[in-house]
Design brief:
Elements (H helix, E strand, L loop, with lengths): L4 H14 L3 H14 L3 H17 L3 H14 L4 H13 L3 H13 L1
Helix pairs in contact: 1-2, 2-3, 3-4, 3-5, 4-5, 5-6
Length: 106
């Protein structure tokens, strides 16, 4: 079914990650995001995209993906934790501390 296409692209992206093919993983995850309509599912996809970027040492892009995940699903602790870590990796320590505290408050 057409509605499941985003899931197939997401699974393809995960297989590409496992195969150490970050470019292909990023493309498949971006396609999954474009096809997905549910905000919570889309947040998980952005979280996965952030991981793909992290694996390629693209920390600014990873931070953007984690920010989108946190925006789409504000209660998602994994997205917040990953966002905090990306702030830390990008030497934005004030934002990292603020975001880690948000995680701990939940």
């Amino acid at each position: 079914a057409k509605t499941d296409a985003w899931q197939v692209h997401a699974n393809l992206a995960l297989a590409e990650i496992a195969s150490k093919r970050p470019y292909e993983a990023r493309k498949a995850m971006e396609r999954a995001i474009a096809l997905c309509e549910d905000p919570k599912d889309k947040a998980r996809l952005y979280n996965n995209l952030g991981f793909v970027y992290e694996q390629s040492n693209k920390n600014n892009q990873a931070q953007y993906a984690y920010e989108r995940a946190a925006e789409l699903s504000p209660g998602d602790l994994l997205a917040l934790r990953n966002l905090a870590y990306s702030f830390q990796k990008n030497a934005n320590y004030a934002k990292a501390i603020e975001t880690y505290k948000r995680v701990l408050e939940r």
